[in-house]
């Protein structure tokens, strides 16, 4: 499902012989998701510009589909991060909005459903499509989200390859500096970042905004405004907001976001793994090699002993002064997974 352009990327380097590749590829791009990088003036300004355009669109329309527009914001931000100047501008232009449909619409959901439950049928239809693409000298790599996204990613990477030094700040540009002889491999890596970053970002923002916009959570908005007003002296008159380094230190804002990710994690379902051939002993139980195992954020986030009244959205739980309790909650907080395969975006 996550193998693009017939190339394995960091996420799909799962076999024993791929472990070194996974570690190496991860190190190449890990810095792009650190706070120090994201808060660099040129990166932060790009994020703010997209946010300003989104706010203008909201103010111009009495009724707006926030799910759709938050996903426009997400894809513009993520693709500008990954492809630099070749990122999308769906907030301002209808071009590339079809990519959001392929990522987040009915087509995407139905294809994923077929991938999970009718794999053989999907493989048959895709084999036929691959044959026709081969006859037309087009990329034959299967992309569960369709050829438009497939083509956009590859064309963007090839364009960057014409002058990678000019686009060195982008993720694709950095990858060209170390693996320049494999544009399809770079495109596969970049596509993984795109797919992983758009739906998760858009969904997380949408569910959180909906939750705190309902009347019973007006007090959350009021506390947020109060906290933001308390940093009045730190506001940047040019951008109309505070620097990211200041916003990052606001405890209630942090609690609101943490609770949103706990209450409705963007990836709540099981994340499947296969036990190595030699098997494993887990909590005294032998797991045979080849066994499919999984864990899911939804279940971990609803252990009542850790999160009392777990179905309630309650940012205050993250403001407890009980350090032991807070440590226990953080240990069970799993929207980004954990370990060597954890999402790079958690930083």
From TrEMBL:
Heme binds at residue 343. GO terms for molecular function: heme binding; iron ion binding; monooxygenase activity; oxidoreductase activity, acting on paired donors, with incorporation or reduction of molecular oxygen. Keywords: Heme, Iron, Metal-binding, Monooxygenase, Oxidoreductase. This is Uncharacterized protein. InterPro entries: Cyt_P450, Cyt_P450_CS, Cyt_P450_E_grp-I, Cyt_P450_sf, Cytochrome_P450_monoxygenase. Pfam families: p450. The keyword Iron applies. It comes from Talaromyces amestolkiae. It comes from the Eukaryota. Belongs to the cytochrome P450 family. PROSITE patterns: CYTOCHROME_P450.
């Amino acid at each position: 499902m996550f193998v693009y352009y017939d190339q394995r990327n960091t996420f799909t380097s799962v076999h024993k012989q791929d472990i070194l590749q996974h570690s190496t590829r991860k190190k190449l791009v890990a810095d792009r998701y650190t706070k120090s990088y994201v808060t660099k003036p040129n990166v932060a300004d790009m994020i703010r510009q997209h946010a300003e355009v989104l706010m203008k669109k909201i103010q111009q329309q009495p009724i707006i589909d926030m799910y759709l527009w938050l996903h426009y914001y997400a894809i513009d931000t993520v693709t500008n991060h990954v492809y630099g100047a070749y990122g999308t501008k769906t907030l301002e232009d209808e071009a590339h909005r079809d990519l959001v449909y392929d990522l987040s619409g009915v087509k995407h959901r139905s294809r994923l459903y077929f991938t999970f439950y009718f794999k053989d049928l999907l493989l048959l239809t895709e084999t036929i499509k691959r044959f026709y693409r081969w006859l037309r000298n087009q990329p034959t790599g299967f992309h569960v989200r369709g050829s438009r996204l497939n083509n956009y990613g590859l064309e963007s990477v090839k364009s960057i390859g014409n002058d990678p030094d000019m686009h060195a700040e982008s993720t694709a540009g950095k990858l060209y500096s170390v693996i320049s002889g494999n544009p399809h491999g770079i495109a596969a890596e970049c596509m993984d970042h795109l797919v992983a970053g758009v739906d998760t970002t858009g969904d997380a923002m949408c569910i959180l905004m909906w939750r705190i916009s309902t009347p019973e959570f007006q007090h959350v908005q009021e506390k947020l405004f109060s906290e933001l007003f308390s940093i009045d002296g730190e506001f940047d008159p040019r951008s109309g907001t505070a620097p990211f380094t200041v916003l990052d230190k606001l405890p209630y804002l942090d609690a609101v976001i943490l609770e949103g990710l706990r209450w409705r994690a963007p990836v709540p379902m099981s994340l499947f793994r296969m036990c190595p051939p030699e098997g494993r002993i887990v909590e005294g139980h032998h797991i045979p090699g080849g066994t499919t195992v999984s864990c899911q954020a939804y279940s971990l986030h609803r252990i009542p002993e850790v999160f009392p009244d777990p179905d309630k959205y309650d940012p205050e739980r993250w403001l407890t002064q009980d350090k032991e309790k807070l440590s226990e909650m953080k240990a069970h907080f799993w929207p980004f997974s954990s370990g060597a395969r954890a999402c790079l975006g958690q930083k």
